[in-house]
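Reminder: ligand-aware prediction takes two inputs, not one.
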Amino acid sequence: MSAPTEHLRELLRPAALGARPRVVVIGGGFAGLRAVRALRGSPVDVTLVDRRNFHLFQPLLYQVATGALSSGEIAAPLRAVLRRQPNATVILGDVRDVDLAGRRVLLDPAAGSDAPGECAYDLLVVAAGGRTAYFGHDEWEPVAPGLKSVEDALELRRRILLAFEMAERSDDPGTRAVWLTFAVVGAGPTGVELAGQIVEMARDTLRRDFRRIDPSTARVLLLEAAPVALPGFDRRLQERAARDLRHHGIELLLERMVVDISPEAISVREPDGTVRRIPTRTVIWGAGVRACPLAATLAAQSGLELDRGGRVPVDTTFTLPGHPEVFVIGDMARVDRPDGTPLPGIAPVAMQQGEHVGRVIAARATGAPAPAAFRYRDRGSLATIGRARAVGTVFGLRLTGLPAWLAWLGVHLTYLVGFQNRLFVFMRWSISFLTRGRGARLINEPWTTTGNAEVSVADEPAQSDATAA
Ligand SMILES: Cc1cc2nc3c(=O)[nH]c(=O)nc-3n(C[C@H](O)[C@H](O)[C@H](O)COP(=O)(O)OP(=O)(O)OC[C@H]3O[C@@H](n4cnc5c(N)ncnc54)[C@H](O)[C@@H]3O)c2cc1C
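Here is what comes back for the chain with flavin-adenine dinucleotide:
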């Protein structure tokens, strides 16, 4: 038996503790929630701490950002999800730090409340996920928001819809064209899906809604530093995706490194080394994710070095060296496959890790044999490009077009948390498919408050793409 397992057995021996072991889980995302659920019925007391009171289905955030779904339809209240799990308690709190030596989780003080500022644990599962990364250019964040939270999605929706409104208000064709230019950075699944939805919104949903502009003239640019779209996918699927994206009306610009973003334009380095400035008011950042800051505090206390993505390197026991009572899983953890390549930061990886760690703790708590060593089961990956158009692999089978799109629908409906959400999303998608409409097209803040739209269009001169050596 390995040292961590021996140690866990000790920790979970009721005589040693005199009480049920306290398991604290930080983060109710894909990894954390699976870990909590795997502990249902186990003789442990689980406390789930999250800064949000809901589980968020991030893969559908882009549909909120483009008005196809409402935020409530892709989020499930954690208390409701765990209502029937009596050994699980939910605490709404922002974890500021973890004290590994003192076995305490430190929470940000809740203003105006006498709530305890810490939470003691015998076993800790850290699954706090990641956040948008700007690769050393954090100054781009205000002008090129990412898509990681409900707030991000609503802000993007506001900016996208506002751009059409501002174009409608302008008398100048050049200014209109600038407002109707949308730049999406990063041709991973998020960028591809977002770009596809903006095109459909412009071409189908908004087609008859404006009087002075033709929304279908909108340009959607998808900028990618790599020479392929959907890096990480099979080469043939990448080629098919690139063809489909272009056929769909998206300007796919590969091998373009973003060098500057301002409220007025995005500048990219062209393959020939020149810099091209593209005037636009709407830039969306879909290019990078970094582990959340808690990873750094865990690494510092356990003598580990974070990887380039800010993730905590762990093996398939998911425990920190010297701290077998602490598990790190999901987007925060870097776990290498036997060939040395890291597991991707995707939902199935997070869910399988959560389930595994939950089962390890449950087995120890009941004295059952330990589960088999963790092995990631790759069932495939899918990305939609547009209506009835997607690419991906499912159980090793390469799919494109309508079959891929149907598989994508099925997978997302299956993994969406909550029966009600599944039903509503299915109904929304069916209605949208038939009518090409989008029911959630609200600009939910006054247009002058934040972001690119601060710039008044009325005073802007017409501009066109400019290239500089
Ligand atoms: C726009 C987008 C699209 C995506 N599309 C896909 C896709 O199509 N397919 C796919 O497989 N994957 C996709 N992913 C990736 C997938 O969503 C992640 O891999 C997955 O969410 C990781 O799960 P996790 O549990 O590690 O983190 P998360 O799901 O991010 O959960 C982390 C939880 O921790 C909480 N938290 C964070 N910090 C603290 C703190 N300090 N205190 C308390 N709570 C905290 C958060 O509120 C959150 O609930 C997408 C991600 C994004 C952003």
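The two ends are 63 Å apart (CA to CA). The chain is about 30% helix and 25% strand. We will return to this case in the review session.
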